[in-house]
Design goal:
Jelly Rolls, 347 residues, six-stranded antiparallel β-sheet, alpha+beta, binds 1-hydroxynaphthalene-2-carboxylic acid
């Protein structure tokens, strides 16, 4: 590949003239914005330990009343992307949110999509357009873009969950904004995972004719995900991942338009190689412990820790136990990449 001319090759008065007219020559920066073979990545394969986050989050509960925060969150910011930019990966925002008994995180809707993955506590819930979604540890709750949502807690003890949003994408589009609203009135029925979409493979008959709701299922209870992984494990070949995707039960497609969600079980003593691919991701450890090798960076993970998978990374995940399975929750930007047409899986 040809070595291109640099800025220093150009006379100073020419460069100054360009600058004064808001013009920039492409060639000195071309190999940076369009590197040969592989993208330049600033995203670091960092790990956040829950044992570190939890005390800081509980302290925030003492320092900052919910009225002064709206959402009491510590953001998992990737140092390679600049801590102020609130990016775990270039496209994925991750935060840890705390709500204390009796508190309410007020109703709003916004352009970014969000999901909640519950880490600990009982009695928390999210209202989405009047549907009350109980938040039990491991549950995934969707708050799609443009839908009203608020959080409450009528149990005892802290409730903590992980938030994942496509906020960096909406922010880059200069399209991220919020609308506040009045407290929702709660529809007095269990959430759709307990009623209309009780079991995979069965949908309400009239949904075949009627225009489909974009988001028929808002809550994916962990108990069923965990059982499904354990049932999948014995029929999955040794070198394949025991992995389930969270999908829209009406379409079979990814449950959200931009970010993808899946649950992965590492069998007893398993070492799993993930194919190198163009998507970036974040792994949250639900249960168990082990080790991740990400492009040669070794991270030891424990339950409730979270770590980053940069784009194009070679990833190996090892279960640290020979006796028990480990369970992981994965977030990635593959749905967005597929829609934009550049998603790739290598090897
Ligand atoms: C948001 O709406 C929530 O509703 C949490 O709980 C975190 C981070 C950035 C923008 C909106 C929530 C958020 C957020």
């Amino acid at each position: 590949m040809t070595t291109l001319g640099t800025l220093a090759d150009l006379p100073l008065d020419y460069r100054q003239g360009l600058t004064s007219r808001n013009l920039v020559p492409l060639w000195p920066g071309l190999r940076t914005v369009l590197p040969p073979g592989r993208p330049i990545r600033h995203t670091q394969p960092v790990l956040w330990r829950y044992a570190d986050i939890r005390p800081d989050l509980l302290r925030a509960g003492e320092l900052t009343p919910i009225e002064k925060a709206e959402r009491r969150v510590l953001v998992l910011a990737n140092p390679g992307l600049g801590l102020d930019n609130m990016q775990a990966t270039p496209t994925i925002y991750i935060g840890m949110q705390l709500i204390l008994p009796g508190e309410m995180a007020p109703n709003h809707k916004h352009t970014p999509i969000a999901v909640r993955f519950v880490i600990e506590g009982d009695g928390g819930y999210t209202l989405v357009e009047g549907e009350k979604c109980p938040m039990e540890p491991g549950d995934l709750i969707l708050t799609p873009g443009g839908l009203w949502h608020e959080h409450g807690h009528d149990g005892s003890g802290p409730v903590i969950w992980l938030d994942a949003l496509d906020l960096p994408v909406l922010y880059a589009f200069e399209a991220s904004y919020v609308t506040e609203g009045p407290h929702q009135s709660i529809r007095n029925e269990p959430d759709a995972s307990q009623t209309r979409y009780r079991r995979a493979g069965l949908v309400p008959y009239r949904s075949l004719d009627a225009p489909r709701k974009a988001y028929p299922l808002l809550r994916y209870p962990w108990r069923e995900v965990r059982e499904s992984l354990q049932a999948l494990a014995p029929v999955t070949p040794k070198r394949d991942a025991v992995q389930l995707a969270y999908v829209n039960p009406e379409t079979g497609q990814e449950c959200m338009p931009t970010l993808g969600f899946s649950a992965l079980m590492l069998r007893r003593g398993e070492t799993l190689n993930l194919p190198r691919r163009s998507a970036s991701g974040v792994v949250h450890v639900v249960e168990g412990r082990g080790q991740a090798d990400i492009d040669g960076t070794i991270l030891a993970f424990d339950a409730h820790d979270s770590f980053v998978l940069p784009t194009h990374a070679g990833v190996t995940l090892g279960n640290g136990s020979g006796k028990k399975p480990a369970f992981l929750f994965l977030i990635d930007d593959a749905p967005l990449q597929r829609k934009l047409g550049f998603y790739e899986v290598f090897s």
